[in-house]
Amino acid sequence: MTRHRIAATLALLAVTAAGCGAKSPDYTTLLTTTTSPKPTTSTEAPVPISQYLENAGVVGQPVAPDKLTDLTVTMPKPKGWEQYSNPRFAPGTRVIAKGDTYPTAMLLVFQLSGADFDPKKALEHANADAELSENFKQLNASSNDFKGFPSSMIEGSYDLNGKRMHSYNRIVIATGPPPAKQRYLVQFTVTGYADKAQAEAPDIEAIIAGFNVAKK
């Protein structure tokens, strides 16, 4: 996969970008469009992680989660959810959906190569795509490790095609076991309509709780 391809693929996923904590959020706040004041110390726009990695000389090759030999990357499929495919998705992307549209859950893995980089530094850019979404309102965020791997997550709501959306996004930079110690970027995104977030919370929270990244 070329550097341009990793940037384009992650940009496509960014329309559903966001992350969440352990306790259930207050979904009623998702319907508002009042955004939190942004810092005024810098006039520079946030740099998405895809662009940061591209600029650092990192190349990503998409890998189907079930084809990984050194990592286990999985998400559960609740009753009533089905596999979903779209020709616009990168090869190996796994998506499940409930019904014909939203909610959806997406899992994408990139095998990284090229220049070395600092995962923590890269993850400082993990929330940029969400923050750049139209009328984005943050509900929750964290930069804590996930399952022992560097990670970043953000959760919130934004406008898309006249609809208010609720989305959860987590990016994990995982490293396989020695001797290869292969690095991967894992992106996990769950998206639904904001006005249905409370009703769909049991399934969505079950998917989030069941998402897993681990060394084999």
Describe the fold and architecture.
The strands form 2 sheets. Strands 1, 3, 4, 5, 6, 7, 8 and 9 form an 8-stranded antiparallel β-sheet that branches. Strand 6 and strand 7 form a beta hairpin. The longest helix has 14 residues, at 197-210. The protein has helices at residues 3-13, 49-55, 119-123, 128-131, 197-210; strands spanning 58-63, 71-74, 82-84, 94-97, 104-114, 137-142, 151-160, 163-175, 183-193, 212-215. It has 5 helices and 10 strands; from the N terminus they run ααβββββααββββαβ. Residues 1-41 have low confidence and may be disordered.
Give a summary of the structure in a few sentences.
Helices cover 19% and strands 33% of the residues.
Layout of helices and strands, plus pairs?
Elements: H1 3-13, H2 49-55, E1 58-63, E2 71-74, E3 82-84, E4 94-97, E5 104-114, H3 119-123, H4 128-131, E6 137-142, E7 151-160, E8 163-175, E9 183-193, H5 197-210, E10 212-215
Antiparallel strand pairs: 1-5, 2-10, 3-4, 4-5, 5-9, 6-7, 7-8, 8-9
Helix pairs in contact: 1-2
